[in-house]
Amino acid sequence: MKAIRSLHPDFQNLLERKEPELIHLFQDLRALILELYPESNELLYHTHALTSVFSISEKLSDAFCMIPIYTNHLNLGFNKGTLLEDPDKLLTGTGNLIRHIPIKTIADYQNEKVKNLIKSAAEFAINDMDKPSKAIGKTISKIKK
């Protein structure tokens, strides 16, 4: 695996307050997403969850997946999950667009089915994008201090 980009200090400070197992799962899942789509921009938020969003542009509307970290768990979310083909029925949720995979162990995402879903989501976002991105492979903090 290639070296991945470092975490933004705003995000790192908040992440360190989470349980060690959640931190490990987040870091490993983030590395997987960045390995599969290294050109993605990472948009960082802290609202109801500490969230890392992966987008093909600098806009949230062009995001293909995200990792929200809650108090006791995290998810692998797909921003347009209802529009993705999901032959293995991996996605759960009831929202109009967003679907997710609950993450409890590394086995929940370190498999070909999930990797293919991430790749499919990125391809969908590329084909759905209005205009080319000005930013490629950037980390953009939206965390208010």
From TrEMBL:
Pfam families, per database record: DUF1801
InterPro entries cross-referenced by the UniProt entry: YdhG-like (IPR014922)
Domain YdhG-like: 26-121
Name this protein carries in UniProt: YdhG-like domain-containing protein
Organism lineage string: Bacteria, Pseudomonadati, Bacteroidota, Flavobacteriia, Flavobacteriales
